[in-house]
Prior knowledge:
alpha/beta; 2 domains; Isopropylmalate Dehydrogenase; eleven-stranded mixed beta sheet; homodimer
Amino acid sequence: xxxxxxxxxxxxxxxxxxxxxxxxxxxxxxxxxxxxxxxxxxxxxxxxxxxxxxxxxxxxxxxxxxxxxxxxxxxxxxxxxxxxxxxxxxxxxxxxxxxxxxxxxxxxxxxxxxxxxxxxxxxxxxxxxxxxxxxxxxxxxxxxxxxxxxxxxxxxxxxxxxxxxxxxxxxxxxxxxxxxxxxxxxxxxxxxxxxxxxxxxxxxxxxxxxxxxxxxxxxxxxxxxxxxxxxxxxxxxxxxxxxxxxxxxxxxxxxxxxxxxxxxxxxxxxxxxxxxxxxxxxxxxxxxxxxxxxxxxxxxxxxxxxxxxxxxxxxxxxxxxxxxxxxxxxxxxxxxxxxxxxx
Amino acid sequence: xxxxxxxxxxxxxxxxxxxxxxxxxxxxxxxxxxxxxxxxxxxxxxxxxxxxxxxxxxxxxxxxxxxxxxxxxxxxxxxxxxxxxxxxxxxxxxxxxxxxxxxxxxxxxxxxxxxxxxxxxxxxxxxxxxxxxxxxxxxxxxxxxxxxxxxxxxxxxxxxxxxxxxxxxxxxxxxxxxxxxxxxxxxxxxxxxxxxxxxxxxxxxxxxxxxxxxxxxxxxxxxxxxxxxxxxxxxxxxxxxxxxxxxxxxxxxxxxxxxxxxxxxxxxxxxxxxxxxxxxxxxxxxxxxxxxxxxxxxxxxxxxxxxxxxxxxxxxxxxxxxxxxxxxxxxxxxxxxxxxxxx
Lengths: 343, 343
C-alpha cells in the first residue's frame, strides 16, 4: 500500500539537511512511499539540488514560513506558530493529505500541537509517548509513557497498557504482547497506590496479556514486550539509560586511548565493538510514537542523524500499514461495549 | 578513632562466608577497627578456623539463633525474628555497643527493623536510602531516595536534600555539595507538582547548595553531587542502571566470544576492558546508607562478594568517623530554630 508521510523538515538539532537526506534514502528503499517535505521551500530546494531520479518524483515540498524552536514553550508554539513546519505537517494529517507525520522538533510542542489539531481517540483520556529499547533477548521492549503525563491515574495506566498492546502487535507482529507494570522491588512497599490499583484493572482484562510487576532492569532483560509506567518515571528511566550508555562509552574510549598499545588493541577490537554496538545502537531505536491521537505522529530524537531519522520514518510507515490508531479505537470500542470500564 | 561495627553475618545471597572473609580483610586494613560478627556462633567459628593473627583479636562473635530470609515480609521479620542476626546487629547500635551495623539482608526488613529499633532523628519524617553511583567526572553522584518512600511530599524531598548534603560532605569532603532535584526534560511539563513545590523549598535555603532540576542522565554526567528524588523514581532509575550495564556486558561478552579471532582480540583487550570496568565497578559503590535514623545502618547489596562487602564496611567506618547522624541532627536543629520550616 502507498503511505504518504509529511516530514517536519525544519526540525531537529541538525536542521533540514538530515531530514532531506533521510527522505532521499528511504524513498529509494520503499517503492510506493510518498513524502512531503514541510518547511522553507528555498532551503529545501537548494538541499535537493538538481537530482532527477525516479524516486524523487514521489517527493513534494509544502512551503511554510515559520518553525518551532527547540526550547519554545508549547503554548507559545500553539498560539504563534500556525505556519510552522511542525504545525503544518500535523495539519496535513488532519486534512487527510498525509497518513502520518514525523518531526524531530521539541517534544512538548509536538504533543501539544498534535493533541490540539488531531484530538485524542474516543475513550483515550491522555495520549502517551512510546518507544522501543533494546534488550538481551535481541528483540525490543516498548516502554510508555515517556513523559507526556506526569500524574497518571490507574485508569490512564490501563489505557497505556492497551495502546502498548496494539503497538507491539502492529510493530513486532506479536499476537499477544506481554505487558508488565513498572514497579520497585523493595519488599516492604511494593509500589504506590497507583500501580497497585492499575494492577487490579489489568489483571482482569482479556484484551491484555498482563504478566505482573516488573522492575527497571526488566526493560533490558526482555521479561515482557511492553513496560507501562507513569511519564515521570518513564522519562527518568529513559534518560538514565542514555546516561549510563554514554558514560560506559566515554570510559571505553578513554581506556582505549591511553597509549600506543591500547590504541593498537582498539584497532583489533573495533569490528567487535561495532558488532555489539549495532545491537544496541540507539539510532535503530529512533522513532517514538505519540499514541492515542486520531492520527499518526512520530517523534524523532532531536539529535538524529540521517540513518536515525530513516528509522523514525520507518516507524511511521509501519503504523500507517497497520493502521494503529484505528486498531486502538477498535479495541477501545470493544471494551466500552463489553465492560464499560474505559471512561 | 576506634570504630566498632556490628556485621549481620547471616545476611546476603552468599551467606556468612562472604561476611567473615570481608571482616578479616578489612581488619587487616584498619588498625583500630573492632568488628562484631552477629550470627550463628558454630557456623562463624568454623569459618574463622584457627587463625591467631593480631587483627583477629579485634573481632568478636555475638551469637544469635535466627535469621531474616531474603523474601520475608518486613512485618513478619519484625514480629517473629527478635533473635535474628539482623535485629541483634541493630540492637547493638541502639545499646551503644556498636557504632554502626552493616547488613546484606532484605532491604525492607532492614529498614523496618532499623526504624522500629533506632527511631528517626528529630525533625526527620522519613528515613531514606542513599547510594553513590559512578559518573563521567571520575567522582560519584549520591542518589536518594532509592525506595524507602514511594509517596513523598515536597517536605520529604527537602529533608532528603538536607541529609544528602550532610552525607556528601562527610563521605566526599565537599564543603558545599551541589544538590539537584530529579525531573523530566519535556518542555511542556517540567515535572509534577511535587518537584515544583520541592524546588521552591530548596531555592531559599542557605544550608543547601541547590543547583536546580536535573535529568536521569545527569546522574552519570556528574552535573551535581547529590540527586534527590522520590523513592519510586530513584529505585526505577537504579534498577535501570543495573539493567543497561548488564545488557551491555552481555553483548560485549557475546561479541568477543563469537570465534577464535574475536577471542584473540578479547585477550588483547582484556586489560583495557578491566581498566574501564574498574572505574564503574558496582562493587566499589556497594554500601547504601539508611539515612535519617538515630544510628548508622548500612545496606550491602545482597549479591555482594568479599571485596564488595568491604566497601560497605568502609562506608560504615566513614559515617562513624564523621558522625553523620549527629550532623544531620545538628543541621536540622539549626533550621528548626532559624526557619521553623522542617516539620
